[in-house]
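hey
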């Protein structure tokens, strides 16, 4: 095991500072930048390295987020084109007849997101589902924040943490725990069900409560929708786009399945399709003016993307320093002790080996380890550690390694996979045009309630 050094304690202290800042509803950019500087200064002993590391960490974070920035920007450009020509009104009309209430909009949107995410993962599913269903949900009376919560928790929560189809998460966890993938999946079913029902149920109840009290309203969205539908003159190009665009994206889904495209490749297919759709229908609608309009739409899309992602890059940069590759890229390979697995992994392993063991303590610690490793906003970076800790704990207490591994997997992904860490829920917030911190705060309580309940339930299956 790698030793815990001053860098680890600096990182931990700055995480606490950032969490307190979030609780106080203040912006966390400055604490994150200070944290990056202190890590560099303490780790290298050079004030200059700490200063230079701030910019270098931004570059590393920007590269990591670049594909997300691009696909969101292109989707927004396409959506703006469809809105200008009036195609969006036609596209949502059939679904709007079915989704007539906020409740139906919440559950239908979430379930569709869950099914698509199981097959293709949430990253490419987010812009696809968001672009098509968000206008329908708004018209049905569901707030944009409510729609975001639904697709976020069903996709990045339930689908990603269970991962029954692609089996990426359980494969990593099982390999580290020295058990079969099917064992992790089967033993984890009660925990997945508990986490899903409790978290989604709590989120829905809290959302309905705030809607009833008037704390959240969609009146502005509805009025703008009605105004748009009244003044928009629907032409032949708009009608053609309204029919063609859903078909094209449906073909994308089929193509992902047939050619086994997941992750970045699936996201690239969505982005390329959106770009093509935007160009083709802009040319058909605007003809001689199309070249200028295409540039205009692309500019609007990327302005939106940079506006949304700009403040997030410094925040993401700090938390990426918790992983071994980014921090070594910024400050050099000697920044961490020999045999280090990264700051977050080292801290999680240190905690796991420092507490007295019995079944309740082992289960609680497994959850905490999963949460800690998820703080980098990845989720998957903590899978190996969650599996390793499960093997150590399960053997020591003569309990179920499979249940512990499944619990650690759920904790790491629900926290880090994209439900409560602000820099990991950017795509959902961007597609729904809401503040990323608002979404993180709204998800926080339901997810924490779910994790506590799931940890308690795990004690009956250990």
């Amino acid at each position: 095991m790698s030793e815990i050094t001053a860098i680890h304690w600096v990182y931990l202290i700055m995480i606490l500072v950032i969490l307190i800042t979030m609780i106080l509803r203040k912006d966390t950019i400055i604490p994150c930048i200070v944290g990056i500087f202190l890590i560099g200064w303490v780790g290298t002993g050079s004030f200059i390295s700490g200063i230079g590391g701030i910019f270098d960490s931004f570059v590393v974070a920007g590269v990591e987020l670049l594909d997300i920035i691009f696909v969101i920007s292109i989707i927004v450009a396409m959506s703006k084109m469809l809105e200008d020509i009036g195609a969006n009104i036609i596209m949502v009309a059939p679904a709007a007849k079915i989704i007539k209430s906020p409740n139906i909009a919440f559950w239908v949107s979430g379930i569709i997101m869950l099914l698509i995410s199981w097959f293709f993962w949430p990253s490419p599913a987010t812009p696809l589902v968001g672009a098509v269903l968000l206008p329908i949900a708004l018209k049905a009376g569901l707030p944009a924040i409510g729609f975001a919560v639904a697709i976020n928790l069903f996709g990045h929560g339930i689908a990603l943490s269970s991962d029954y189809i692609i089996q990426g998460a359980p494969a990593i966890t099982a390999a580290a725990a020295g058990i079969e993938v099917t064992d992790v999946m089967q033993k984890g079913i009660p925990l997945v069900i508990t986490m899903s029902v409790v978290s989604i149920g709590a989120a829905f109840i809290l959302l309905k409560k705030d809607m009833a009290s008037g704390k959240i309203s969609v009146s502005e969205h509805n009025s703008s929708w009605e105004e748009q539908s009244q003044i928009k003159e629907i032409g032949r190009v708009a009608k053609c786009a309204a029919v063609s665009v859903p078909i094209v994206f449906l073909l994308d889904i089929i193509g992902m399945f047939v050619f086994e495209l997941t992750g970045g490749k699936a996201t690239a297919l969505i982005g390329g399709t959106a770009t093509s759709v935007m160009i083709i229908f802009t040319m058909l609608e605007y003809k001689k003016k199309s070249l200028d309009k295409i540039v205009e739409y692309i500019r609007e899309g990327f302005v939106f993307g940079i506006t949304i992602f700009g403040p997030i890059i410094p925040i993401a940069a700090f938390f990426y320093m918790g992983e071994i590759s980014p921090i070594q890229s910024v400050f050099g390979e000697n920044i961490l002790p020999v045999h280090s697995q990264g700051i977050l992994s080292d801290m999680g392993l240190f905690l796991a080996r420092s507490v007295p063991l019995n079944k309740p303590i082992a289960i609680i610690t497994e959850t905490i380890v999963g949460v800690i490793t998820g703080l980098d906003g990845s989720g998957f970076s903590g899978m190996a550690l969650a599996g390793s800790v499960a093997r150590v704990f399960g053997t020591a207490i003569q309990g179920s390694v499979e249940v512990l591994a499944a619990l650690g997997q759920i904790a790491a992904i629900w926290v880090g996979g994209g439900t409560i860490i602000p820099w990991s829920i950017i795509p959902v917030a961007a597609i729904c045009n809401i503040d990323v911190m608002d979404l993180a705060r709204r998800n926080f309580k339901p997810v924490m309630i779910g994790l506590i309940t799931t940890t308690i339930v795990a004690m009956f299956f250990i």
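The first helix runs from residue 6 to 23. Confidence is low (pLDDT under 50) at residues 220-231.
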